[in-house]
Automatic annotation (TrEMBL):
A matching Pfam family: ADH_N
Organism of origin: Rhodococcus artemisiae
Keywords carried by this UniProt record: Metal-binding, Oxidoreductase, Zinc
UniProt record similarity statement: Belongs to the zinc-containing alcohol dehydrogenase family.
Record has Zinc as a keyword: yes
Lineage start: Bacteria, Bacillati, Actinomycetota, Actinomycetes, Mycobacteriales
Occurrences of domain Enoyl reductase (ER) (ranges): 8-344
Cofactor(s) this protein requires: Zn(2+)
Protein's UniProt name: Zinc-dependent alcohol dehydrogenase family protein
Amino acid sequence: MKALVFHGPGKRVWEDVPDPHIQDPTDAIVRVDAVTICGTDLHILGGDVPEVTDGRILGHEAVGTVVEVGSGVQTLSPGDRVLVSCVTACGRCRYCRDTSYGQCLGGGGWILGHLIDGTQAEQVRVPFADNSTHRVPDGVSDEQMLMLADILPTSYEVGVLNGRVKPADIVVIIGAGPIGLAAILAAKLMSPSHIVAVDLADSRLDAAKAFGADVVVNSGRDDVAAIVRDLTGGLGADVTMEAVGIPATFEQAVALVRPGGHVANIGVHGKPATLHLEDIWIKNLTITTGLVDTYSTPTLIGLVDSGRLDTSSMITHRFVLDQFEEAYDVFSRAGETGALKVLLTASS
């Protein structure tokens, strides 16, 4: 089969690799019908995730069709249409029992495209398949479902729920890329009074406005702190979310929140960020980080299935699998191309 293979920082190739096979009784082999690229994949290619080694197939999001199951798989059969979750769960360890699947001790967690071969391929082996896939409801498209593999549960759990967004809150989201836009959609479920989106690219701020942001701020031109002070009577935001993954935006998120407020870090960081305790020790802040656990995926599937949450508008560019190199180029130059999420399918 063909797959997108990592060969060290900055090196990726769509090439021939062996087909996956059942290794454990709880495995399933899934034919990839739709897949996307995550900002985390760009961090890997940038050398920010050294655990990813030469030869690894990238990717941790897919919708596909089950083609084979191990003898221990109880809820799936060949032909089933499933979402492959970005997080794998053994279902038995302490963390899985607490629904903290991202911290799985039994061989799960974030492993696809990280510690084992991932989804940017024609087929993928999914460990602990009963716990790590979700059936696609009839009438829900592949592209709608695909957004629930990672960015929607990440923004909802790590951003909105960890940040404790409440009705009438003022929420500032720094970064209007795919995860920031997903955070806007997720925050709207909690009925905040204002959502403020901050970014350097006007194209992404236009997208943020379309996704439901009440105020958009270009941090390259505008005084973000002054705008937030004016909006909040000088207090600062109730909740800030960092959705970029660089030191400057994390420090900005801390600076913009009010005393007693919440800072939810969603971004993937490859470098240290300074925590200015000399300024904030007195402010009673709550700062949270997190890898998504995907415990909310069934809830989000229900919202999509009922029409309460529309994710399809996040996809701006469409390709077939053989165009993976081009798709990466478009996605990595999002400021120029306007790419939000790219969709790759097995056929046009």
